[in-house]
Design brief:
Structural class: alpha/beta
Strand content: 15-25%
CATH superfamily of the largest domain: Thiolase/Chalcone synthase
Strand order of the largest sheet: 1-7-6-4-5
Radius of gyration: 19 Å
Order of helices and strands: EEHHEHEHEHEHEEEHEHEHHHEE
Mean pLDDT: 97
CATH class of the largest domain: Alpha Beta
Number of strands: 13
Helix content: 25-40%
Length: 331
């Protein structure tokens, strides 16, 4: 008999209706559809424009779909982990706000802030609660409203990011399917290359920080690119080695959708065929913590019970890592 593992038993996603295409961006900043497509692979991204709506509203739509698809009573959710860097407020956490909006009254929630690695970190954290026997139903959501922290006069960042995300339901499994292993890393010195300068305790919001545009994402692309490719490929290969797996035994590679060049470079370094790499960056851009569950939701119909999958991500901070899991159901 296999030990208890945390299996993904349901997946869902949500993106806002409003679409910002490359052609639209041509009217806003000095760029072209060809320039964006060639360098990033992105054709469009979704933007949450409704007044009074925020990250928790997208998260609530994700959770509602999970509850409906899985036939789960809201009161049966033990824990919700929300990976995000664009919470509704500094506090309270967005996870409990999502649960409140969906009528989940018996559980609790908290947020994880690890930028684009957030969902992956949250997935492994949630899995540990299942494996320990502490909880039976854990939801992990990765969702970001990146448009709230993007300067749409900065063509180096505004072409990349979009709003949206996805989530999964984790439940106990004893058939060998579920989250099996993870390798995570962090390097705080990378913060100088990718950060949001103001709004925290180091630089609280003032008129001066707002006027200096310090509440928008800053990214130095070259060192981020290099670190992302190395970090994702190396941790994925470490997973293969310590789980005695060959590349042809992996059905799917799910990389963070940061940039098409990064995705292809990671696949090349792993010698992994692109036809088995999940890619949807063209439709959503980089939704930060939302990219991995968005991929799983978009490819769900192609997944089969027992499929071996490696998810890998890299985020600001720096944070990075990879997770190996076996899919628990036929899509």
């Amino acid at each position: 008999m296999e030990g208890i593992k945390a299996a993904i038993t349901c997946v869902s996603s949500y993106v806002p209706d409003s679409v910002l295409t490359n052609k639209d961006l041509e009217k806003i900043v000095d760029t072209t559809d060809e320039w964006i497509s060639t360098r990033t692979g992105i054709k469009e991204r979704h933007i949450l424009k409704e007044k009074g709506k925020a990250t928790s509203d997208m998260g609530a739509e994700i959770l509602k779909k999970i509850l409906e698809k899985s036939g789960t009573d809201p009161d049966d959710i033990d824990l919700l982990i929300c990976a995000t860097v664009t919470g509704d407020m500094v506090f309270p956490d967005t996870a409990n706000t999502i649960m409140d909006k969906c009528g989940c009254n018996n559980g609790y929630g908290y947020d994880i802030s690890a930028a684009c690695s957030g969902f992956l970190f949250g997935l492994t954290t949630g899995a540990k609660f299942i494996e320990s026997g502490a909880h039976k139903k854990v939801v992990v959501i990765g969702v970001d409203m990146m448009s709230s922290i993007i300067d749409y006069t900065d063509r180096t960042t505004c072409i990349i990011f979009g709003d949206g995300g996805g989530g999964v339901l984790l439940e106990p499994s004893q058939d060998g399917n579920g989250v099996i292993d993870s390798v995570f890393r962090g390097d705080g010195s990378g913060r100088r290359f990718l950060h949001l300068k103001a709004g925290g305790s180091l630089n609280p919001a003032t008129v001066e920080t707002v006027m200096a545009k310090q509440h928008y994402v800053f990214q130095d692309g070259r060192p981020v690119f290099k670190a992302a490719v190395m970090g994702m490929s190396e941790t994925a290969q470490q997973l293969l080695s310590r789980n005695n797996l060959q590349m042809d035994e992996i059905q799917w590679l799910v990389p963070h959708q940061a940039n098409m060049r990064i995705i292809k470079s990671v696949a090349d370094m792993m010698d992994f065929p692109m036809e088995r790499v999940m890619v949807n960056i063209q439709n959503y851009g980089n939704t930060t913590a939302g990219t991995l569950p968005l991929c799983l939701a978009d490819y769900e119909s192609q997944l089969r019970k027992g499929d071996r999958i490696i998810l890998t991500a890299f985020g600001g901070g720096f944070t990075w890592g990879s997770t190996y899991l076996r899919w628990a159901y036929d899509g």
